[in-house]
Specification:
The complex is a heterodimer. In chain A, 24% of the residues lie in helices and 22% in strands. Chain A is α+β, with helices and mostly antiparallel strands. Chain A has two domains: 48 residues, no CATH class; 172 residues, Oxidoreductase, molybdopterin-binding domain (Sulfite Oxidase, Chain A, domain 2). Chain A is globular. By secondary structure, chain B is mostly helical. Chain B has a single domain, classed as Up-down Bundle (Fumarate Reductase Cytochrome B subunit). The chains are: A alpha+beta, B mainly alpha. Chains A and B meet through helix 1 and helix 2 of A and helix 1, helix 2, helix 3 and helix 8 of B.
Chain lengths: 232, 225
């Protein structure tokens, strides 16, 4: 081995690094292929999803009290919904579309779970949530659970959707409480959809409309290039 | 002029091995480039961030302007497409190596004694890189990098599906533990690539063999080459 050889190898490694930095990703054909694979990954994930497989639950001591705030806007810009004026609107393939007040929502039987929130960026945090299984709510309002999706529209302009198997998963909650308190405004009062089998961004907050549909609902971050199914 | 012509050193690589080698190389570059940008969105080590120019995932300024997203979506698309290429090429490479006897013939035998002997020789620049025959250091490195790719696939599944494959992450010491293992495996593979590419530059005929299938050269006669 000689010095020139080392220099040359250093140079070729540098070239390799430069290749990664180019704008290949923004090429239209490349985008189409990558999005196509992402749609394929949706189908793979739906196929391996097992409704009986529960997300791990942790001891209550593991739950973080001061849960990480996360949104594309600051906590001071988070919507503050009125407990008296708020209504949950129902739409789509639901038999009883009467809207719900906070009081009515809170009156439903609740369970608690200590589960882990996993963010697409790589951080994770265990929290304690209280709420009603979404499954119970869907059955109570006469939702067509043979439909393929449940969609959500939110007070902060967010929108998301779940595949029906995930919506009917026993651990998917309408979470009314966090850390044994009524869900604070910055975490999504009056409720957030807590889905321990999905990445964090599939857990919409401030839900104002819930609908059942056979058309895949769009997602705020999915429209920005993230994978739709995003199961974990 | 010597009376006896020294026999030529010959290296051959079968087509399936070449194709899967290069696809695996491409996949590894894709996985590392996109993985670095994903890492940057939530660094494991506060002091370490990868320059965006060295990462894969599209123009950051454009993604910020368009979606208020620092190009992580693009990196994730690459990563979760590249994983299929990596897994596919790896399976073909492994199956070919095992079932044709290529691994047994060329990567074995190898042991700690021969490895130490060749490693010391290499450190003193006294190890010959012979075309068509792997020394003990090479053998250990090839086994090592193949094991590392398997580790990356398994730790990657633990990170991608921490609920569906929960027992896996327990093996890695939890979800964050799996992320650390995935990171360290990447670092070791980068280390392998640096040495691998440097040696290819020193013995360019190996590149010819891995690309065209066959290369020959006269044995080195100068000492310590």
């Amino acid at each position: 081995m000689n010095r020139r050889g080392l220099l040359r190898s250093g140079f070729s490694l540098g070239t390799l690094g430069l290749l990664g930095g180019c704008n290949l990703t923004d090429n239209e054909t490349v985008q189409e292929v990558l999005t196509g694979v992402s749609r394929f990954n949706d189908r793979v994930q739906a196929a391996i999803f097992r409704q009986g497989a529960l997300a791990p639950e942790f001891p209550e001591a593991a739950a973080v009290k001061d849960f990480r705030y996360n949104a594309w806007y600051g906590p001071d810009q988070a919507p503050v919904l009125s407990a008296t004026d708020y209504r949950l609107n129902l739409a789509g393939k639901i038999a009883n579309k009467q809207s719900w007040t906070v009081e009515q929502l809170h009156a439903m039987p609740q369970v608690s779970q200590v589960t882990r929130h996993v963010c697409v960026e790589g951080w994770s945090m265990i929290g304690k949530w209280n709420g009603t299984p979404l499954r119970e709510f869907l059955l109570r309002v006469g939702a067509d659970t043979t439909a393929r999706y449940v969609g959500f529209e939110c007070a902060d302009g967010y929108y998301e959707g779940l595949d029906m198997p995930t919506a009917m998963h026993p651990q998917t909650l309408m979470a009314f409480g966090l850390s044994d308190q009524v869900l604070p405004a910055k975490y999504g009062f009056p409720f957030k959809i807590r889905v321990p089998t999905k990445l964090g961004f599939k857990n919409p907050k401030y839900v104002t409309t819930l609908f059942v549909t056979n058309q895949e609902p769009r997602g705020f971050w999915t429209d920005r290039g993230y994978n739709w199914f995003s199961g974990i | 002029m010597s009376a006896v012509e020294p026999t030529l050193e010959v290296q051959t690589h079968a087509l399936p091995a070449r194709i899967s080698h290069w696809l695996m190389a491409l996949a590894v570059v894709i996985m590392i480039g996109s993985g670095w940008r994903i890492y940057d969105s939530e660094p494991i080590f506060g002091f370490l961030r990868f320059p965006y120019a060295m990462t894969l995932g599209g123009d950051v300024g454009a993604a910020l302007a368009r979606n208020n997203d620092p190009g992580v979506a693009g990196a994730l698309l690459w990563h979760f497409a590249g994983m299929w290429l990596l897994a596919g090429a790896y399976l073909v490479f492994m199956a070919w190596g095992i079932f044709t006897g290529h691994f047994r013939r060329d990567f074995l035998p190898v042991g700690p004694v021969s490895f130490l002997r060749d490693f010391i020789a290499a450190a003193r620049f006294r190890l010959e890189h012979r075309l068509g025959e792997y020394n003990a250091v090479q053998r250990v490195f090839y086994w090592g990098v193949l094991a590392l790719v398997a580790l990356m696939i398994v730790s990657g599944i633990a990170i991608w599906k921490p609920v569906q494959s929960y027992p896996l992450e327990v093996v890695f010491g939890g979800f964050q533990g799996a992320r650390v293992v995935h990171f360290l495996g990447m670092a070791a593979i980068v280390g392998f690539m640096v040495v691998h590419v440097a040696l290819v530059v020193l013995v360019p005929k190996t590149f010819v063999a891995m690309t065209l299938g066959r290369a020959t050269q006269r044995p080195h006669t100068e000492p310590g080459a």
